Amino acid sequence: MRKKLAMNMPAVKVDLGPIPPPLPAQSTAKVLPLLAPKPTLKSRIAAGSTAIAARVFPPALVIALLLAIWQILCSKAGATLPAPSKVVSDAWGLISDPFFDNGGLDKGLFWHISASLQRVALGYALASIVGVALGALVGQSIWAMRGLDPIFQVLRTVPPLAWLPLSLAAFRNGQPSAIFVIFITAIWPIIINTAVGIRNIPQDYRNVAAVLRLNHLEFFLKIMVPAAAPYIFTGLRIGIGLSWLAIVAAEMLIGGVGIGFFIWDAWNSSHISEIIVALVYVGLVGFVLDRIVAGIASIVTHGTAAN
Amino acid sequence: MPYLKLDHIAKSFVRGSQKTVVLADVTLAVEKGEFVSIIGHSGCGKTTVLNIVAGLVAATTGGAILEEREVSEPGPDRAVVFQNHSLLPWLTVYGNVRLAVDKVFAARKTRAERHVWTMHNLDLVQMAHAKDRRPAEISGGMKQRVGLARALAMEPKVLLLDEPFGALDALTRSYLQDSVMALHEKLGNTVLMITHDVDEAVLLSDRIAMMTNGPAATIGEVLPVPLPRPRKRLELATSPVYLKCRQRMLEFLYERHRFVEAA
To answer: What angle do CA A176, A180, A185 make, to 5 degrees?
Structure first.
């Protein structure tokens, strides 16, 4: 029985023999170059204009539709707001020449906007400097955070305009009061985002700094600022938006040259069309401010966000 | 007195009334030019040992002594190659190495010399071709090479490698291991490496310190690797000495100090 089994299943001896040499790479196959057509100037212009059209056409269509609806709704008798055609005809002087200056408050929109922008620039610049410095302090020091953070959390919920009477009482002058309102509006998101950014600096970077024995200033400039830059710029971007929101409201109250007062003045004189033109300007300028800060951010933080 | 001495290092964390002993009585001597690995299961406190030598973490008792001076803070004489490369993403490959060179050689080299030294170290790890790329634009293995160049550029007394190839795929890892071996051959650095890879430890080390499991982990056994250098990966695969070393480590790690939690 055992023998039979042994006969049926002999010890298997497999001789693999020498390992065959690897097959040569197939170099005999003919390589056909892909004939890519050279882009001609004409085709490139066509491609470029298609890309631009894809960007421009949809919003243009939507705007045209909205204007049409507006036109229809406000063309009826007894409409309280002017139709777009009436806005253009009413405020043509304002639209066609933003640069006129008849003295006093009777100026073109360019001058109002630039007065508002100057206030924003001052208040926002101050808020950026103080905000990043305070944010760095709160982000880096646990004791500064414990002491200051609760205060920041309460103060940041105070509406911008609520600061205006207090700052008018303190400065006894509209101009610094408006700048202060911008400052106090823009500073909170800058502080908070900077602090978060600095608290989130990975321990790895701190270890690298420790091994290299970077001093405090070198650590601030070479690790902290670049590492927290994406966060800082998020704060700066929110800040510029809030500043522009606050300036219009603040100027309505303090008066003088400025887009906010221009709107308020137009309302008091029942020039509704002028208000609409001013609102378009305010929106466009706010958009441009946001894009500028975002543009600076993407240049400065190039490569920082990606790890 | 050895070049680098880990002298009865103990580390414990106190949280409320609970005291956790991580390391107890870790003692190890490393001679100049030696390549010593510390191996152990994950979570046993290997990296804590390295961080204590680096000065990034303070020991509870005991400490590390380098050239007869106690380690009290981090410094470029104990350059670390971190597990996850730790390159600064806003600097180029060149910028990352140059930052270290500028800081360490601020007084000793001119600007031009610092540039040459930076390029020299990038050449050592074959990364000079990518000097203007940012860390996000290069592969994991390349990042680790740059981390190595940055550490080498500090001319450290001891090079500390914290699982430097842990995050890499097997092929890249073996390629980098060969590079590290060649560099050690060429420069004669004193190296302390943390690893959890048995083959890597045998291939690279002169001696291997095997750690017991925590809590209160310590060095259970030090295994000398009497393989002649230069070592060739393929030849070692059949070398009896290599296999014996490997066997000893596997016995230590998987029989006597089996890592229960991982199962």
So the answer is: 155
The token pair at A94 is 């304002």
Q: Is B141 helix (H, G, I), strand (E, B) or coil?
A: helix
Structure tokens at A155: 């103060």
- pLDDT tens per residue, range B174-226: 889 999 999 998 888 999 999 988 999 999 999 999 998 878 888 988 999 98
Categorize the per-residue pLDDT at A209 as very low, low, confident or very high, splitting at 50, 70 and 90.
very high
Partners of residue A218 in chain B, C-beta under 8 Å:
103
DSSP H or E segment with residue B93? helix B93-104
Tell me the one-letter amino acid at A37: P
The ipTM value here is 0.87
**Closest Cβ–Cβ partner in B75, B84, B104 for A204:** B84
For residue B135, count CB atoms less than 10 angstroms from its CB and return exposed for 0-12, middle for 13-18, buried for 19 or more: buried
**Arithmetic mean of pLDDT, A57-72:** 93
φ, ψ for residue B235 (rounded to 5)?
Answer: -70, -35
Pairing verdict, β B4-15 and B61-66: antiparallel
> How many residues does this entry show for chain A?
307
Considering only CB atoms, which chain B residues are within 8 Å of A212?
76, 99-100, 103-104, 154
Nearest by CB: B103 against A213, A227, A306: A213
Residue contact A302–B90, C-beta within 8 A: yes
CA dihedral (B53, B55, B59, B64) positive or negative = positive
- H, E, C per residue of chain A: CHHHHHHHCCCCCCCCCCCCCCCCCCCCCCCCCCCCCCCCHHHHHHHHHHHHHHHHHHHHHHHHHHHHHHHHHHCCCCCCCCCHHHHHHHCHHHHHCCCCECCCCCECHHHHHHHHHHHHHHHHHHHHHHHHHHHHHHHHCHHHHHHHHHHHHHHCCCCHHHHHHHHHHHHCCHHHHHHHHHHHHHHHHHHHHHHHHHHCCCHHHHHHHHHHCCCHHHHHHHHHHHHHHHHHHHHHHHHHHHHHHHHHHHHHHHCCCCHHHHHHHHHHCCCHHHHHHHHHHHHHHHHHHHHHHHHHHHHHCCCCCCC
Tell how strand B190-195 and strand B219-224 pair up.
Answer: unpaired
**Residue B45 carries which DSSP code?**
S
As given in the structure block, the two tokens for residue A28 are 């005999």
Residues of A with CB below 8 A from B54's CB? 211
Closest partner residue to B74 among A211, A226, A301, by Cβ? A211
**Chain centroid offset of residue B224 CA:** 18
CA A19 – CA A26 distance, rounded (Å): 20
Give the number of other Cβ atoms within 10 Å of residue A194's Cβ. 30
Contact B20, B10 (CB under 8 A): no
Greatest mean pLDDT range, A34-43, A132-141, B230-239: A132-141
Closest Cα to residue B49, out of B168, B212, B183?
B212
Work out whether strand B35-39 and strand B207-211 pair parallel, antiparallel, or are unpaired. Answer: parallel
For a pLDDT cut of 90, what percent of chain B falls above it?
53
What end-to-end distance do the CA atoms of chain A give, in Å? 71
The model's pTM is 0.75
**How many CB atoms lie under 10 A from the CB of residue A74?**
16
Q: Best of A211, A219, A299 to disrupt the B interface by mutation (most B CBs within 10 Å)?
A: A211
